[in-house]
Amino acid sequence: MTRRFVSILSIVVLATALGACTPAASTGPTSVPAGAVRVSGLAHAGPTCPVVRPGDSSCADRPVAGAVLVVTTAAGTEVARATSAADGTFSVALPPGDYVLVPQPVTGLLGTARPVPFHAQADGAAPAPLDVAYDTGIR
């Protein structure tokens, strides 16, 4: 085999192996495993104007694309990750239980959004959409 072929083959094998090790993540609707609950939400950032006036839609919060959201058990063990889509939405399928959504820092935004505790019910009913609020730092 040529050296170039071996290099390309090595890259393909490495990419396949890394893909198999990636934790569950989702940004949109996909099939939900039996017994799992689809949990979804919105990552957004505000304020977007120095002075926000009630009813001024030009100062509405903006969606946060690419936010990494880690789902942990109440004890802190990571069970899944989701990444927000361009419109700020995210979702992940989880077995019933108590969890905490732990937002990770986003470049260009001030600090990190607060963790969001939630419960995925055993009856499969989805919890209310989770609200992940980042701070833009605009004042």
Structural class, please? mainly beta
β-strand percent reads 25-35%
Radius of gyration: 19 Å
In N-to-C order, the SSE pattern is HEEEEEEEE
Largest sheet: 4 strands, mixed
Proportion of helical residues: 10-25%
What is the averaged pLDDT score?
Answer: 82
Using the alpha-carbon principal axes, give the shape: elongated
Q: How many beta-strand elements?
A: 8
Number of DSSP helices? 1
- The low-confidence parts are 1-29
Distance between the termini: 62 Å
Short description:
This protein has 139 residues and is mainly beta. The chain is built from one helix and eight strands, in the order H-E-E-E-E-E-E-E-E.
Description:
- The model is unreliable at about 1-30 (pLDDT under 50).
- The strands form two sheets. Strands 1, 2, 5 and 8 form a four-stranded mixed sheet that branches. A four-stranded antiparallel sheet has the order 4-3-6-7, with no helix packed on it.
- It is mainly beta.
- The longest helix has 18 residues, at about 5-20.
- The chain contains one helix and eight strands; from the N terminus they run αββββββββ.
- β3 (about 70-75) and β4 (about 80-85) form a beta hairpin.
- The chain starts with a helix and ends with a strand.
